[in-house]
Amino acid sequence: MLRRLVLFALATVATASAQPPNVLLILADDLGWADAGCYGNTYNETPHLDRLAREGMRFTHFYAGPVCSPTRANLQSGRDQARYGITQHIPGHRRPWAKLRDPVVPLQLPLEVETFAERLAGAGYRTGFFGKWHLGGRGFSPADQGWQVSEETKGNIQKQAGGEQRTAAYLTEKAIAFLQTERGRPFVLQVAHNAVHIPLSTTPEHLARFGAKPAVPGYPSRPEYAGLLAELDDSVGRLLDALDQLGLAENTLVFFVSDNGGLEHEQNGTVVTSNRPLRGEKGSLYEGGIRVPAIARWPGRIPAGTVCHVPAITTDLHATFAELAGVKVTEGALDGVSLTPLLADPAARLSREALFWHLPHYHHSTPASAVRQGDWKLIEFFEDDHAELYDLAGDPAETKNLAETEPARTSALRASLQAWRQRVGARMPVPNPDYDPARAGELGKAGRDR
Question: Which one of the listed residues 134, 197, 361, 364 is annotated catalytic?
Answer without folding.
Answer: 134
